[in-house]
């Protein structure tokens, strides 16, 4: 099996969020789940994508953390399709279909960047009781102050459910030190992947700065999270921060010294709300896995 290491949501190596990408040999089926978990653990990235080629511009991708399979992973998808472009299997201008456990998603291949369709957005719940708010913010190593934060946390999914957690300032965002064990338990209880904390305290041209934590899946912090920023884009729409047809530029990974730029687009002008997330990626290494 061919593998690549790809830095997603960045224009330079050692930036963005690294992902493992494994391309199955032509005609081969996926290895066992155990083998894919062990491979992801061996590669040691937050997610590794396993790609099965189904036909021209049609792929089936499964995503594994070092602990378990997840339905979808944004940065590993961006990495996968940039890797496929690097290998000459797709080209600029192609529209591809990615069959995932979260549904069949459209992928638009640009010149050095990829935009991926998210699953249908879902507003799952709002965290609004004083007890629940205090618990969440305490677990995340900060305090809830309604005089500074007027927005409420929400559970939203565009493929994977996460808690969107607002903070007042970039200083508050950077100062967070979550209790990872408590956050794992909280995530399991809420049925979410983790917490996507953000602040609208941003410079001109940037919609938000954010940090993402998913220790339940052995990811203490992630430098760029496509699905979570798709969900955040929908959160912005629900809270009238952006228009029904709009674009966002979101910065993540600064606290990890891996600054990432995540672009998103939303079109809620019709009966269905469509969200795309994307960015650039760089291939760092490639080789063979002998299994």
Automatic annotation (TrEMBL):
Q: Where is the active site?
A: 47
**rRNA processing in keyword set:** no
List GO terms (cellular component aspect): cytoplasm
UniProt KW keywords = Isomerase
Q: Which SUPFAM superfamilies match?
A: Diaminopimelate epimerase-like
The record's listing under Pfam families reads:
PhzC-PhzF
Q: Where is the signal peptide?
A: none
Q: From which domain of life does this come?
A: Bacteria
Record's InterPro entries?
Phenazine_PhzF-like
Transmembrane segments in this chain: where? none
Q: Name one GO molecular function term.
A: isomerase activity
This protein's record includes keyword Isomerase: yes
Give the similarity note: Belongs to the PhzF family.
Q: What is the protein name given in its UniProt record?
A: PhzF family phenazine biosynthesis protein
């Amino acid at each position: 099996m061919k593998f690549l290491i790809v830095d997603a949501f960045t224009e330079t190596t050692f930036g963005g969020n690294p992902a493992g990408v494994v391309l199955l040999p032509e005609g081969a089926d996926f290895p066992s789940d155990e083998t894919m978990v062990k491979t992801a653990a061996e590669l040691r990235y937050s997610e590794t994508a396993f790609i099965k080629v189904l036909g021209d511009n049609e792929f089936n991708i499964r995503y594994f953390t070092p602990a378990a399979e997840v339905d979808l992973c944004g940065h590993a998808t961006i990495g996968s399709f940039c890797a496929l472009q690097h290998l000459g299997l797709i080209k600029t201008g192609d529209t591809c279909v990615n069959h995932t456990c979260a549904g069949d998603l459209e992928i638009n291949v640009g010149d050095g960047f990829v935009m991926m369709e998210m699953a249908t957005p879902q507003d799952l719940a709002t965290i609004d009781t004083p007890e629940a708010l205090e618990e969440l913010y305490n677990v995340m190593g900060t305090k809830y102050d309604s005089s500074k934060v007027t927005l409420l946390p929400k559970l939203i999914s565009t493929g994977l459910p996460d808690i969107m957690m607002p903070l007042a300032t970039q200083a508050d965002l950077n100062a967070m030190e979550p209790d990872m064990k408590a956050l794992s338990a909280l995530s399991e209880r809420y049925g979410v992947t983790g917490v996507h904390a953000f602040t609208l305290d941003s410079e001109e041209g940037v919609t938000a700065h954010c940090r993402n934590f998913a220790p339940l899946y052995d990811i203490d912090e992630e430098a760029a999270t496509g699905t979570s920023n798709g969900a955040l884009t929908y959160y912005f729409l629900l809270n009238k921060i952006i228009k029904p047809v709009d674009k966002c530029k979101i910065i993540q990974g600064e606290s990890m010294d891996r600054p990432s730029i995540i672009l998103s687009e939303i079109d809620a002008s019709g009966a269905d709300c469509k969200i795309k997330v994307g960015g650039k990626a760089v291939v760092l290494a490639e080789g063979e896995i002998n299994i």
